[in-house]
Design a protein that fits this description.
Number of helices: 12
Strand content: 15-25%
Structural class: alpha/beta
CATH architecture of the largest domain: 3-Layer(aba) Sandwich
Largest sheet: 7 strands, mixed
Bound molecules: NADP nicotinamide-adenine-dinucleotide phosphate
CATH superfamily of the largest domain: NAD(P)-binding Rossmann-like Domain
Number of strands: 13
Radius of gyration: 20 Å
Strand order of the largest sheet: 4-3-2-1-5-6-7
Length: 337
């Protein structure tokens, strides 16, 4: 049995959800792959839990839900996540702090500290990847450790690992898809119920599908960030968020959606990269029976390949348990070989 010592940095929706999934899947994974995942540290903004002999991940999850993580017997007030990463005897860092597309921080420093102390990184955090992809990749390579980020694009949807493992003989020629569940939810309801944008947005906010400040989603920024990650990771490009051409969904009217529908189309916010040209995010007409015409909060990605032709995957782009599927997949694939 291979024991793998894990640090979880950022113990919010995703970080604590992964702790729960590790706890629930520990036996399944050890039986199937001979790998025993043990959480030995948890980093939060205001302190850390450090426990070399192992943390009960389900207990930590429950304490977080109750807002009492700092009552854990191994809690250390004020110890920074950077110090935890540098000092802990651990093999791998799961980085799940908030996305920051301006500086990439705090995730960027966490990832660099992990690589420089020979720890693998698995992350759901888009920020560092959209502004410093090459630097992170090179630092991981220099230190002989792995850098995996399936969860950063499309939550549960397997796209990076699909390309890495299953489509490995293919050249990927173009990528297009719906990469933001909030926009897809808003457009789907506007279209099917004939409702105005503001109305659906406020209901989406009440349901927790849209943020109080929805700018990042509805202006297409989130889609562009994910597209940039795909461009760098799958197409081998060297682009950042600033290279993308981005239009969001705020100007789409119920009238435009009705006209489109009468002609057999839906309007979707599509991110696309064709022939290694500039990443582009914009509302586009999609035939109702096209594979990209998925509804609700679903995400979808279509890859055009030289051998396999068109490959399309769809799935949930967010959610703690769904996203933990991608994080666990990355963790297992680092150690499975
Ligand atoms: N939620 C999803 O469904 C989803 C899906 C795919 C990807 N993602 C990405 O995954 C990441 C985490 O998302 P989330 O929904 O879990 O966010 P979240 O609930 O806001 O959790 C982030 C956690 O990181 C903590 N944090 C902030 N600064 C920190 C620091 N310097 N050191 C250690 N911890 C720090 C936060 O603490 P405070 O609360 O004290 O600030 C919070 O507990 C984001 O980058 C997000 O874009 C999320």
């Amino acid at each position: 049995m291979k024991k793998v010592r894990i640090l979880i940095i950022g113990f919010g929706v995703i970080g604590s959800g992964v702790a729960r999934a590790i706890s629930e899947k520990r036996e399944f994974i050890s039986d199937k792959y001979g790998i025993d995942f043990e959480v030995v540290g948890i980093g939060e903004r205001d302190g850390c839990i450090v426990c070399p002999e192992g943390i009960d991940a389900m207990e930590a999850y429950k304490l977080k839900q109750d807002g009492t993580l700092n009552k854990h017997p191994c809690w250390k007030d004020g110890v920074s996540s950077i110090d935890l990463i540098k000092g802990a005897n651990a093999d791998i860092v799961i980085e799940a702090t908030p996305t920051n597309i301006n500086s990439g921080e705090p995730g960027l420093s966490h990832m660099m500290a992990a690589f420089n102390t020979k720890k693998h990184v698995v992350t759901s955090n888009k920020g560092p990847l959209t502004i410093a992809f090459q630097k992170l990749k090179k630092t991981a390579e220099k230190n002989g450790v792995q850098f995996r980020f399936e969860a950063a694009v499309g939550g549960a949807m397997p796209v990076l690992n699909l390309v890495r493992e299953t489509l490995q003989a293919n050249e990927i020629l173009s990528i297009e898809g719906i990469l933001n569940g909030t926009c897809n939810y808003i457009l789907t309801r506007m279209s099917t119920e004939g409702l105005p944008y503001e109305h659906v947005l406020s209901e989406a906010q009440e349901l927790g599908i849209a943020e109080a400040d929805p700018t990042y989603d509805v202006d297409g920024i989130d889609t562009a960030c994910k597209l940039v990650i795909l461009a760098n990771a799958i197409l081998g490009m060297n682009v950042s968020y600033k290279d993308a051409d981005v239009t969001g969904i705020t100007q789409i009217s119920p009238g435009a959606l009705k006209l489109a529908s009468d002609d057999g189309y839906v309007i979707k916010l599509i991110g696309e990269i064709k022939d290694r040209n500039r990443p582009r995010v914009a509302p586009r007409l999609v035939p109702k029976d096209h594979p990209l015409a998925v509804g609700g909060t679903l995400n979808v990605i279509s890859l055009r390949t030289d051998l396999a032709g068109e490959i399309t995957v769809t799935g949930k782009g967010a959610g703690a348990i769904e996203t933990s599927s991608s994080i666990l997949s990355d963790l297992i694939s680092i150690y499975k070989a």
